[in-house]
Design a protein that fits this description.
Length: 270
């Protein structure tokens, strides 16, 4: 039975730990967790029964798989003091946004097995897209990654570089972008005398309904689904013509590119 060490007890690592326990993928006794400040770690231990360690280094002695649930700006500070204690058999899984597999290898030279992961905020309801880039071709490393992250949603293996950046922006930052669009819908309804509660509910149901229809008709392209709700010269067609004239797609692509540039900046370790 392998043991899993979670360095950091923040949002992501907590969501992963809870999903792994709720799906009985892992048992509490297989999980060790450390965190910089004690409060949230103590609460997690109380809620789940996982092991707590007070020093990050203790995770390395206890566990084969180490999950780094850290912000990129905290990564070097957390890892450099313990880097030489990693051993070749460790597998390192990193959630640090923007930090490449090559940078991880530079930070932890003793290890050869790395996985870089990009989830999104929907991990807590297990509907995340989970992008994973794996160093090397070892099939067991991919199976381990699949086992660890499929309880959180849809695991997508992707090459590093542009595909990983595109997934990060579309699927992780993308949740924030979709909320921005939802706010536009909500504001329109508020401007037309719906109460805040009604405007929120109507917006959420519209986005949810569109997404669930696409799930239900998984063999139908999004374009065909859209065509089904557009009648020639109707009001939807008029609105869509205007959206296209305003080149909303071009504007959104500029925003996506800006987010990619920021992702690259964040990944530069000191
Ligand atoms: N949240 C999301 O929706 C999301 C989505 C996609 C990707 N990500 C990525 O996932 C990573 C983690 O994000 P998060 O939202 O989980 O961040 P978070 O909630 O801030 O968690 C980070 C945790 O790391 C702990 N930490 C920092 N330095 C440490 C050290 N030296 N030793 C031990 N623990 C240390 C922090 O402890 P303290 O309690 O002292 O602060 C904190 O609990 C980030 O790289 C983020 O970009 C997050």
């Amino acid at each position: 039975m392998k043991s899993y060490g979670f360095l950091g007890a923040g949002h992501m690592n907590q969501a992963i730990i809870k999903a792994l326990l709720e799906t009985q993928t892992l048992q509490p006794q297989q999980i060790w967790v450390s965190n910089r400040s004690p409060g949230k770690l103590d609460r997690l231990v109380e809620q789940t029964g996982v092991h707590k360690v007070s020093q990050n280094e203790e995770l390395l002695g206890a566990c084969e798989i180490i999950v780094l649930g850290l912000k990129p700006q905290d990564l070097s500070q957390a890892i450099e003091p313990i880097s030489s204690s990693f051993e070749p058999q460790h597998v390192v899984v990193s959630l640090a946004a923007g930090v490449s597999l090559a940078s991880l290898k530079k930070l932890i030279p003793n290890v050869t097995q790395f996985v870089r992961v990009m989830p999104n905020a929907a991990v807590s309801i297990r509907h995340s897209v989970v992008g994973c880039a794996v160093a090397g071709e070892a099939p067991w490393l991919k199976s381990l990654t699949q086992q660890l992250f499929s309880p959180l949603g849809q695991v997508i293996f992707v090459e590093e570089g542009e595909p990983f950046e595109a997934l990060t922006v579309a699927c992780s930052s993308g949740v924030g972008f979709v909320y921005e669009l939802m706010e536009y819908w909500q504001d329109w309804l508020l401007d037309h005398d719906f109460s805040p509660a009604e405007a929120r509910q109507m917006t959420v149901e519209t986005f949810l309904g569109a997404a669930l229809l696409a799930v239900d008709k998984s063999r139908t392209s999004l374009e065909e689904l859209q065509n089904k709700v557009v009648s020639k010269k109707g009001e939807t067609a008029a609105g869509l013509d205007s959206i296209r004239e305003c080149e909303i797609e071009r504007l959104l692509r500029i925003s996506f590119e800006k987010a990619v540039m920021r992702d690259r900046e964040l990944g530069q370790l000191d």
